[in-house]
Amino acid sequence: MYDVIIIGAGPAGLTAAIYALRAGKSVLVLEALAYGGQIINTPEIDNYPALPHVSGFDFASALYKQALSFGAKVIFEAAAAIENNGETKTVVTSKNNRFESNSVIIATGAKNRPMNIEREKELIGKGVSYCATCDGMFYRNKDAAVVGGGNTALEDALFLSAICRRVYIIHRRDEFRGDAKAVEQLKQKDNVEFVLDSVVSKLIGEERLNAVEVTNTNDGTARTIDVSAVFVAIGQMPNNEAFSNVVTLDEHGYIRAGESCETGTPGIFAAGDCRTKSLRQLTTAVADGSISGSQT
Description:
The protein is an alpha/beta fold and 296 residues long. Helices cover 21% and strands 27% of the residues. Strands 1, 2, 3, 4, 5, 6 and 17 form a seven-stranded mixed β-sheet that branches. Strands 8-15-9-10-11 form a five-stranded parallel β-sheet, with helices on one face.
């Protein structure tokens, strides 16, 4: 029996653990994969107050160690279901372990959104990747493409431009959603080409990716671009389906919860990228963690 069970060991979940532990609560953190969440793949964080240029890995590692130092218990098992018993909650894991608590904080974050085109899954690890900082060095001095128009795509392109021979940024619109500063930086790169108003329509290659077919969204014309890798950065999807019996999801699968992080079910909170919100950033994730951790 724990005072609080936190599902997810990303910035929101670990911050919630710290706040709950400092309030004298017993805390269990359940994590399906590895601590840190998406931020662990960011090579350099520039928008977190007072910590310029810290790497995502260093930030996540420090946060994890801090939570452990306060007494958090972390078990690396996926939460498969939440049972609402009224005053208490039971979290069932993928290994059929059952843990009880007075409160549950869902901080599952979000997962990468696929392009949903033919052979995408087949070529994962063979030229298709969703993490430039993880896999970029495999394509050093080769040509690569980045798909997307947000900050992640722009950051991926900047990172790859330093190690790849040529980088193509493929975006379905004619303007980027990401920071204007990053766009300007990319415009200054001699080895970066913008492929706008375009989508990847085909992945080409037998054993490995050799090229992508790109179709213009305005006139339907197609173009083949020779690349050894395509890095997909077109957004994320929440992973909340398993908890739809105890929380309400919006049309995109995010948990309906406001700035209080309350889900509408007493004792169950949602924190970080998994909940409905206008801005999903590291700062808002840790803010959610501090709010939800303080209310348990």
